[in-house]
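Progress against Task 2.4 (sequence-to-structure conversion) is shown through the following example record, which the project officer requested during the mid-term review.
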Amino acid sequence: MMKFFRVFLLAALVLTAAAPASAFLGMFAKHEEVRAENGRVTIPVDRVSDGKAHYFRFQDGGTELKFFVLKSSDGVIRAAFDACDVCFREKKGYSQDKDFMVCNNCGMKFHSSRINEVAGGCNPSPLKRSVEGDAVVVAVSDLVAGKGYF
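C-alpha cells generated for the chain above:
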C-alpha cells in the first residue's frame, strides 16, 4: 500500500510540474500556423470576426513571425505583429482584456481600435492587411518586414 502511495504521489508531482514546464517550452502555443499561397496568407473573415484576438505564426526560414488579427468594436478588422518596438526582445507578445490588447511584458493597454492606427512605443506593431471578399489577406513581404521583432 505504501509503495502505491509513493508511486501515486510521484506521478502527481510529475504531472503538476509538466503542465507549467510544457507551457513554458511552448508546447501549448497559442499561435496557429498559417501558410502562404502565391505570396499571401489568407484567413477567413468569419474566423476573426468575433471580437477576440486570433493569434497566428508564419515560418520564414528558421524564424517564426507571430501576429494577431481581430475585429475591433468599431467593426474594423485589424492586424499587428505580436510584438512592439519597446518590449519585443522579451518575446512575450500581447493578450486580450475585453476591448484592450495588453503587453505581456510591461502591462500597457491599448484599445483595439488603435491597432494599425498608432505605431511606435509599446503599441502593437502594425501589420498591413486587407479584406478581399471573405478573407483577410496579409502579404508575405509585409510579414517578413517585421522579422526584426522575432
